[in-house]
Amino acid sequence: MSAVEQRHPDVIEAELVPADDGTYDVEVTISSPYDTPQRYADGWRVVAPDGTVPGEHQLAHDHAGEQPFTRTQRGLTIPDEVGEVTVEGRDQQFGYGGGTVTTDVP
Question: Which of 22, 38, 76, 104 has its CA 20 to 30 A from that of 54?
Fold first, then answer.
């Protein structure tokens, strides 16, 4: 698919890392080949299987010179009964969509 046809960013990697305080950090790699100042990947969300969202992360600027790019969100609280989460990317014009990554909660 060409960059012009792609409407949403793809999450290509996501890893949950336990923090010392009982929360989690999530390291997310996103591919956003259409990146422009007018339309770019502006964040992601972490979704539990029941649809609840333990965390959302906003990106303040485009990453046109860095594709794909990796960022970390810290301090996610994920309930003990949740065994896996899915990370979804967000495009500032079209919202959530594109490739997702599901990862186990360690």
Answer: 38
